[in-house]
Amino acid sequence: MFYNGEKLFFREGCSQCHSYKGKGGRMGPDISAVTNIRSDSWIDSYLQDPKKLNPLSRMPSFKHLSRSKRKAIIAFLKN
Prior knowledge:
- This protein is mostly helical.
- About 50% of the residues lie in helices and about 5% in strands.
- A two-stranded antiparallel sheet has the order 1-2.
- The two termini are about 20 Å apart.
């Protein structure tokens, strides 16, 4: 099944904390270039369990999202 990563990004509330290409929140880091510095597998792991990779992270877990949905969000971030 194909998922629209951009819609998921906004529907899941990512933009409430993160800015992406100048739009969105300011609580979390700007993630416009995250795919240039982190691998897809790292981002996927972080989405599932942020505190495992960064114990001080305030980001909630998105492990409730299927792998396909997480991959769609990562693909959106690559645009």
